[in-house]
Design brief:
Helix content is about 75%, strand content about 0%. By secondary structure, the chain is mainly α. It has one domain. The longest helix is centred in the C-terminal third of the chain and has 26 residues, at about 180-205.
């Protein structure tokens, strides 16, 4: 079944919302494919969706990146922790190392729609527990190599389709005692090398013989929605706990089960 422009926009919206919320973008994309009756979108289209999210997170945190590479030094957090760029690298190493060994195996994993929804729910439970149990006062100026490595270990779990990368890394950061905003901020910063790495892997399988309208509108939708999601998510978690994502995941799991088994 050929993808329509409207479906491409919906895929872009799904990617933009779920890439940075702790509810798994890959899981929701798989379920969107199921509901649209699209067995497997072209790899070039999936690559374009991820590039929309990548551009969004780079542009939204452009001041942060300038400070991290010492082009600008007007943000106190980076003056207090001048090694943050290297700590981002440390957090990235575990998932890259493991991904190089089991990447092909994980890529070929095929889970049922119910299992994907269940994994999304499990990730939300982990985030909820880490958010409730552990200390909540540390900021990024206190992050060290040990913290970064632990967060990186959590990110390995997100190699499993249906497990949220942001959900796992935020859980790891919360377990290390970081406040909600800085936990999410660090998660977003370390998403850049991960999305770039995923994009490089996708390029090997992608065919870019033609640039379709669907690819363009999907990328634009992913970019715009990703920026909005990052902005409002950071504002939201200043006021509420991550429990809302657990509630969402429970409802989402129930609906998925009903559609698959009763639909």
């Amino acid at each position: 079944m050929e993808m329509t422009i409207m479906q491409a926009i919906v895929f872009g919206i799904v990617q933009g919302v779920t890439e940075f919320l702790p509810i798994s973008s890959s899981g929701h994309i798989v379920l969107a494919q199921y509901f649209f009756g699209i067995e497997d979108p072209q790899m070039s289209f999936v690559f374009a969706l991820h590039m929309g999210s990548l551009l969004a997170v780079v542009m939204y945190f452009w001041r942060d990146w300038l400070n991290l590479v010492h082009i600008k030094k007007d943000m106190k957090v980076y003056q207090d922790n001048p090694h943050l760029l290297w700590l981002i690298v440390v957090a990235t190493i575990p998932s890259v190392a493991v991904g190089l060994f089991i990447g092909d195996f994980v890529e070929n994993l095929v889970f049922s729609k119910v299992v994907v929804a269940f994994l999304i729910l499990c990730g939300s439970v982990v985030l909820f527990v880490c958010d409730r149990i552990f200390s909540k006062k540390r900021t990024l100026k206190h992050i060290n190599v040990k913290n970064s490595f632990i967060i990186g270990l959590f990110q390995i779990v997100a190699l499993i389709p249906g497990v949220s990368r942001s959900g796992m890394t935020i859980s790891g950061a919360r377990m290390c005692g970081f406040n909600r905003v800085d936990a999410a901020r660090f998660s977003f910063l370390i998403s850049v090398p991960i999305i770039i790495g995923a994009g490089i892997l996708m390029i090997k399988s992608a065919v870019f013989s033609e640039f379709t309208v669907q690819v363009f509108v999907g990328t634009v939708a992913s970019f715009i929605v990703s920026i909005c999601t990052i902005h409002y998510f950071l504002a939201l978690i200043r006021k509420v706990s991550y429990a809302i994502f657990l509630y969402y995941s429970i409802v989402f799991f129930i609906i998925t089960c009903c559609v698959v088994y009763l639909g």
